[in-house]
What we know:
This protein is mainly α. It folds into 2 domains: 2-386, no CATH class; 434-549, Serine Threonine Protein Phosphatase 5, Tetratricopeptide repeat. It is built from 26 helices and no strands. It has helices at residues 2-6, 19-24, 57-70, 74-100, 103-115, 120-124, 130-149, 154-167, 176-186, 195-203, 207-224, 236-255, 274-298, 301-311, 337-355, 361-383, 389-399, 404-416, 420-433, 438-450, 454-467, 472-484, 488-501, 508-518, 522-535, 540-549. Helix 18 (404-416) packs antiparallel against helix 19 (420-433). The radius of gyration is 27 Å and the shape is elongated. 44% of the residues are buried.
Amino acid sequence: MLTALAYVATLQFQFVYDDESQIVGNQLIEQWRFVPYYFHMQVWGHIIHQEGNYYRPIFMIWMRLNYALFGFHPFGWHLTTVLMHVLATFLVFKLAKRLSARDDIALIAAAIFGVHPVHVEAVSWVSSVTEALFAVLLISSFLCFLDWRDGRPNARGYSLLLYGLAIFSKETAVVMMPIVFVYAWIYPRAEQQSLARRFAKALLPALPYLAITFAYLYPRYLALDGLFHTFTPLPIRTKLLTIPSVLWFYLKLLFVPVGLSGFYDTPYVTSASLGLFWLPLIGISIFAAGLFYWWWKTRDRLVAFASAMLIVPLLPLMNFSVFFQGEIAHDRYLYTPSIGFALLVAIAITSIGKRLRRSSQWGELLLAAPILAIFVVLTISQSLYWSDNLVLYNRGVQVAPNNNLAVNNLANEFERRKMYPQALALYSKVLERKPNFYLTNFNFGYVSGEAGDFQTCARFLRRAAALDSTDGSTFYYLAKCEIRLNDFDAAETDLHRAMEIDPRLQGPHYTLGLLLKQQGHTQEALDEFRDELYKNPSNADARREVEGLTPKR
């Protein structure tokens, strides 16, 4: 109830950020007949030119179910996102209870997890439901694994099935195997074993999850045309130097979850400087040493396993090359690691309660109450930044003024509101810093055309096409500018190029039809209008043209 209360305001939020292209602009979630395609494409497969690393068919089925229930009404989508987080919170309680055999630790851990402000992005933004979705499946899989360890043979099959669903929901579920290994190592069936035998005994129960992972990799390879793609090539040295600053960034968010945003300035570290390398390295080393000392003094296996639950899910995030530039750190990536953090906080609070001679469950909950109250207030207040795009992107630019994507997105929102001078000023700021940024060149050209400056429109769209020739929409909008400049031959060439690159793109056939009609090629124009209607039956203008050009009988 507390978790649901913290996020009740999000039910009034709009679709924001990627929701508009991933949900509203995604025709593949509107009909059940497309479901088989989900297993043969990446999440952004409806945008043909865009390469991706996200193979998540279960998430796409989740979007299809939501569309079937709610259409494009944001309320329902936000409701199911909040409910998924509530379910994850309940499962964290079940997991903590199972591991600790104590209600107080389980209650506090679940409450900390449920209302921690670092989950604002994952719960307030519909497209980020992948975090809660795969976490629910992953925790359920691990609980079934624990049942199997306790002597329920059928539970192993359920665990593997749930893990399969989890990894087909989000690729980072691959952490299941190391988590199972770590648990079997920390909680061996027999205490007196050699290290080699203990390693083998810990590895054996993890191997079936490795088999499921290999089975997943084949369809992933086919769908993505590779296991993963490098979006930002980085030297190994830069990756290694950047790891401490990113880990320190995440650690600060867990302990002091303020100043949250969908965008951050997280630079790549290219030299071992004091501020960006040595101080973060010292900070995380002190934290790691503190965890080790805590375990060493108490010999509490739960402390060791909770530490692993915090650290292991962070490891796949350290391959920064698979992220777009400037996108290497986000709050939502802490969704699963925060389970371990919540467990550690709960263990610490109950330990303090015992020392203060407040060993009753309610006494320890009272110790947690101030933290929970602060977290609830911070969650409610910071979730409001996700209410609509203008608020979200303004916040992003405020927190991360050097993040080109945040500035570009704010400019896009100004364009949507027909605030063209403000949009162009922001695009210019990005282009000063990064002249060859394809997206901003495209947006600058598009908005210039909307503002009536077709010469500038054509110039920047040609530059965008030179930077990335795989986006059909670039050639489509370039052709529209060329028509306004009376360059009809170039326009016809670019329209054909747009249709060749992206056969599903809506608009080029209609625009080419108008061009052919103007030139007196009636039959060819009619064919183009019909092709447009086939791709987009709701295009009333194309329908009128077909009716007007079709010979009367």
